[in-house]
Amino acid sequence: MIAPMILHDYFRSSAAYRVRIALNLKGLQAGQRFVHLRRGEQRSADYLRVNAQGLVPTLEVGNQRLAQSLAIIEYLEEKHPDPPLLPPGPEDRAWVRGIALAIACDIHPLNNLRVLKYLADPLELDEARRDEWYHHWIREGFDAIEQQLAARATGRFCFGDMPTMADACLVPQVANARRLEMSLDAWPRIRAIESACLALPEFDRARPENNPDAE
């Protein structure tokens, strides 16, 4: 029997977007509770009792509360292995995890909301300089990821012809780049993978604009 799940979510959170994709690919249902990051609801006493870091997503599974998007996706993979989000071989699994971690650990943390707010106050960077910061770290990350993906361009997705954890991380990061009006011309392989992913209903349903709390 599958324990009931609740996803604490925010439509614009790319970390929560990853988990929405993974849930959809696994064919799993989770109730949603929305945490409005721009209104500071993640710092409320009620939410800090759910997630002491004050971050989304949090996945409640029965009486357990799971934090960090990749830990949640790994949990879903272990608990519900079909369809898989990781390939069978250990080297290939490590490669897929490497793409996912390059996004979740090296690009996204430098550009998330709390970092951008700190750049604004107390560091007093204006919007143009904050946008350049954002663009810089996406360019740094995507330049390397494009090379890695192009070297293994053997299917429609990051790894072959089935979406993996890497795709669940890549698509939300590309959405962030598009929201900041970045040109993606330098990364044709990334663009092609994004297009293939968004053609799938599991990815389309997870898009920020399709989330019930979208503004």
The largest sheet, given as strand count, sense and whether it forms a barrel, is:
4 strands, mixed
**How many E strands?**
4
Radius of gyration: 17 Å
| Named CATH topology of the largest domain | Glutathione S-transferase Yfyf (Class Pi), Chain A, domain 2
Write the element-wise H/E pattern from the N-terminal end onward.
Answer: EHEHEEHHHHHHH
What fraction strand?
5-15%
Distance between the termini: 35 Å
Helix content: 40-55%
Alpha-beta classification? alpha+beta
CATH first level of the largest domain: which class?
Mainly Alpha
Q: Report the mean per-residue pLDDT as an integer.
A: 96
Can you describe this structure?
The chain is of the alpha+beta class and 215 residues long. The chain folds into 2 domains: 77 residues, 3-Layer(aba) Sandwich (Glutaredoxin), CATH 3.40.30.10; 114 residues, Glutathione S-transferase Yfyf (Class Pi), Chain A, domain 2 (Up-down Bundle). A 4-stranded mixed sheet has the order 2-1-3-4, with helices on one face. A hairpin with a 2-residue loop joins strand 3 and strand 4. The longest helix is centred in the middle third of the chain and has 25 residues. The radius of gyration is 17 Å and the shape is globular. The relative contact order is 0.15.
Question: How is the secondary structure organized here?
Answer:
Layout: E1 5-9, H1 14-26, E2 31-34, H2 45-50, E3 58-61, E4 64-67, H3 69-79, H4 90-111, H5 113-120, H6 127-151, H7 165-179, H8 188-198, H9 201-206
Parallel strand pairs: 1-2
Antiparallel strand pairs: 1-3, 3-4
Helix pairs in contact: 1-3, 1-7, 4-6, 4-7, 7-8
